[in-house]
Each structure stands twice: as C-alpha cells, then as structure tokens.
C-alpha cells in the first residue's frame, strides 16, 4: 500500500493563511520580525517551524500558541514513521503490562 506523504506546515501556512488573506512572504516576515529567507524556506518545505517562529505566527494569525508547533510536530512524526517503515513493529515489542491500544 502506498502512503501519501504528510503535508509540510509551510504548505498549510501558504495555502490556508497567506494566499486567502493576500499576504506576501515579505509582508509576513516584516510583520513578525523575522528574515524573509526564513519564511521563504518554511514555505518551500526546506525549513522547520521552530518554536520561535511558531509563537510569532500564532500571535500574528490569532491562533493558539501551540497551533503551528503542533503542525510541525505532527509532520515530523509522520515523516519519521515513513522512514522507519515496519522497523518499529518488527524490532520493538510493546510491554504487555501497559494499558492502551
């Protein structure tokens, strides 16, 4: 079964925030006081959203503090799961004395 790769947070930032609001990466960078190269790299999927950027973006777009950080964390976990493939299930036996699924 082929898995669809997760969507990078930069794509969400571009398509769900910047484009609908008509905000350029230049304007965003100036407004949240970060280098434009940082925003460009995030939008291209070449850079992670750091906690600093996440807090700035969340404040700017009036989102909960953890919104952009959670997008990044979710993306990172999904990418790592794809890299590991079946290794987790094949190499690590869950403890039988722990609850959960």
Report on this model:
With 101 residues, the protein is mostly helical. Helix content is 61%, strand content 0%. It is built from 6 helices and no strands. Helix 1 packs across helix 3 and helix 2 (25-32) packs across helix 3. The radius of gyration is 17 Å and the shape is elongated. The mean pLDDT is 93.
Topology of this structure?
Layout: H1 9-21, H2 25-32, H3 36-43, H4 51-60, H5 67-84, H6 87-91
Major beta-sheet overview: none
Mean pLDDT, to the nearest integer, reads: 93
What's the β-strand tally?
A: 0
Q: How far is the first residue's CA from the last residue's CA?
A: 23 Å
Label the overall shape. elongated
Helix content bin: 55-70%
H/E order of the elements? HHHHHH
Instruction: Give the number of helices.
Output: 6
* Rg, nearest Å: 17 Å
Strand content: under 5%
The low-confidence runs, each spanning 5 or more residues with pLDDT under 50, are: none
The assigned structural class equals mainly alpha
Question: What's the short story on this structure?
Answer:
Helix content is 61%, strand content 0%. It is built from 6 helices and no strands.
List keywords for this structure.
101 residues, mainly alpha
């Amino acid at each position: 079964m082929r898995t669809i790769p997760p969507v990078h947070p930069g794509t969400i930032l571009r398509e769900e925030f910047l484009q609908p609001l008509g905000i350029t990466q230049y304007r965003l960078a100036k407004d949240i006081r970060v280098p434009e190269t940082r925003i460009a790299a995030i939008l291209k999927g070449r850079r992670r959203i750091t906690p600093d950027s996440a807090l700035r973006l969340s404040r700017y777009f009036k989102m909960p503090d953890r919104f952009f950080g959670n997008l990044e964390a979710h993306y990172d976990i999904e990418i790592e799961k794809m890299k590991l493939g079946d290794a987790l299930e094949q190499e690590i036996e869950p403890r039988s004395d722990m609850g959960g699924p």
